[in-house]
Amino acid sequence: MSVIPLPADVEIVTGSTRGAQLWRVLRRDPLSIMSLTIILIYLLMSLFAPWVAPYPAQGAGKSNPPTVMLPPSPQHWMGTDQLGRDVFSRVIFGGRPAFIVPLLVVGLAVLIGAPLGAIAGFKGGWFDETIMRITDLFLAFPSLLLAMAITAALGRGLENAALALVISWWPWYARIVRGASVSLRDRYFVEAAHSMGVREPVIVARHILPNCLTPILIQATIDLGTVILAMGGLAFLGMGTQPPAADWGLMISEGRTSILNAWWIAIFPMLAMMILVLAFNLLGDVLRDFFDPRHYR
Amino acid sequence: MNRLEFLIRRIVASLFVLIGVSIITFMLARVVPSNPAAVYIGPKARPADIERVTKQLGLDQPLPLQYARYMGDLVRGDLGNSISTKRPVLLELQSRLPATLELLFAGMLIAVLFGVPMGVISAQKQGKASDLAIRVVAILGVSIPAFGLGLLLQILFFRWLGLFPLSGRVGKELRFASPIIENTGFLLLDSLITLNFTAFQDALWHIVLPAITLAAYPLGLVARMTRGAMLEVQQQDYIRTARAYGTPERVTVFVYALKNAIGPTLTVIGLTFAFALTGTFFVEIIFNWPGMGLFTVRSLLNLDYPAIMGIALFGAAGYVLINLVVDLVQAWIDPRISLR
């Protein structure tokens, strides 16, 4: 009589308790709470910018000649810029292209990369080979350089810069999800679904992709900081948001010309960007520790 | 598989990647824009010019044929002419390369010289104050945009403390007082060769702030990666054995542990070289450093297509080359790798 071996991959911890576990870890870690709070505040301030900003018209780009280049004061917490606009209001409005758009960029990159990677890993063969070789080509460029070239080809502007970032970033997700998908392909629940006659697209959508969520989540959190910096870089170069709209990268570029006599114009948007990226990096570290304890002990 | 075979396989693989890279730049230059000829001439294109360039570039021919021609030009080192300067793109890049490389090497030198020991110390003192301090510096390094940090350093060290010059590679006075005779284009090297110490000091002072700005991101990554790898290695039996034998702690850590932790660190150093390459573009703008970055930005603003694609190709080639070198160095350090 042969003993049926217990499948090595029996999952005792289900998805929902895993999430609860994560929440318990995050809740106890002051740095994570701080990061999450920062991200939430940024999100709310960006979404409700016209209501939060003290000078919404200036935040949106309207100049105000009487208050040119005033240093920080109770009326203008972060001072005013060369066109007399309240820097604080513009930092808040700048969060829309500089933070909300990168969120969408990463989301879209996941939406493109994850299914392709899942199918590639699941099916293998020529499809896998093709997708992976294509990602090789994209990953052969430094991401930001590729994004610059694509933006140049499409034309400047926020939408094109965002699209360029999506095109430069989706291969990373395809790669990661493919790896996870390959390891899931031979597991019992996938085989069971197969034997029950579940069609392949359904298996990928219902059984493969949901189980790839963890690596996607970690990677997306870590990437968000990088994408925010990349978006800021494109805006700084004048490839992204166009004046008079506000965008942290663009504001830093505008502030550069008066950096020696009005430091606040460039430094506050820079701090805004740095704090947000820092929050994502801290959170990314915690997530990585939790899901992949081998990485950093 | 022996080393030579490994070397050849990696080089062949890199060649294939480069061909793929050229396909992407070709598509971006000729396929994505609705009217590539107009784009190629620049914003002031006249219909007659467009027709001429369409013929000249062979844009009326089928795409595979166009690509073959493009590829043929590339192989001969012809990246086309820059729209704004009218000179060959390759020449423009070559003349600016030393300035960018000098900055890149200076930045990476700082990142590695400080990042690796920081990571080692941090792992040694895990949980202590020095670990925390190093981790804060490392995570700040990867969170701050280079173009912002550059401005911050300019305010601090030029405006307030007056320690370092604001921008440029050398001071204006130097051109008359003790000019540098350029051989390599690396000013630090050139001034040293000709024993021009006044110029050397001037160039050194000028590179400090840009190099620190550039180093911040790679330094953070290197320190974090070294720390992680060292923590992992320190748990290994052979480290415990070394300790049990009473090997001096310094030797245990910096020889036995670091040697085994250096693999992942090297990969990161290779990767960050590429990040740093795009990083130099921003640093060059902030510090008015006459390298490829300033040229890139001007090209982007003028929609100087041949220049932009040339830069992208150049950057990707550099990236592929660096990755190749990293792989080879790793195979050299760790013989197990070449067996794979």
How does CATH name the architecture of chain A? Answer: Orthogonal Bundle
CATH superfamily of chain A: MetI-like
Count the beta strands of chain B.
0
Q: Portion of residues in helices of chain B?
A: over 70%
Task: Give a quick account of the main beta sheet of chain B: strands, pairing sense, barrel closure.
Answer: none
Most extensive interface, residues per chain? A-B, 47 and 54 residues
> Whole-number radius of gyration of chain B?
24 Å
On the 0-100 scale, what is the average pLDDT of chain B? 82
**Helix/strand class of chain A:** mainly alpha
Give the helix level of chain A as a range of percent: over 70%
Assembly state (oligomeric):
heterodimer
Question: Which key terms come to mind for this protein?
Answer:
heterodimer, A: 297 residues, mainly alpha, MetI-like fold, 71% helix, B: 340 residues, 0% strand
Q: Mind explaining what this structure looks like?
A:
The complex is a heterodimer of chains A (297) and B (340). Chain A has a single domain (35-43, 76-291), classed as Orthogonal Bundle (MetI-like fold). In chain A, 71% of the residues lie in helices and 0% in strands. Chain A contains 13 helices and no strands. Chain A has helices spanning 15-28, 30-47, 49-52, 56-60, 87-123, 125-139, 143-154, 158-185, 188-195, 200-208, 213-236, 248-256, 264-291. Chain A is elongated. The two termini of chain A are 44 Å apart. Residues 5-14 of chain A have low confidence and may be disordered. Chain B is an all-alpha fold. Chain B is built from 14 helices and no strands. Chain B has helices at residues 3-31, 36-41, 47-57, 63-75, 89-124, 129-141, 146-160, 174-177, 187-193, 197-234, 237-244, 249-287, 292-302, 305-333. Chain B is globular and about 80 Å long. The chains are: A mainly alpha (297), B mainly alpha (340). The interface between A and B is large, with 47 and 54 residues.
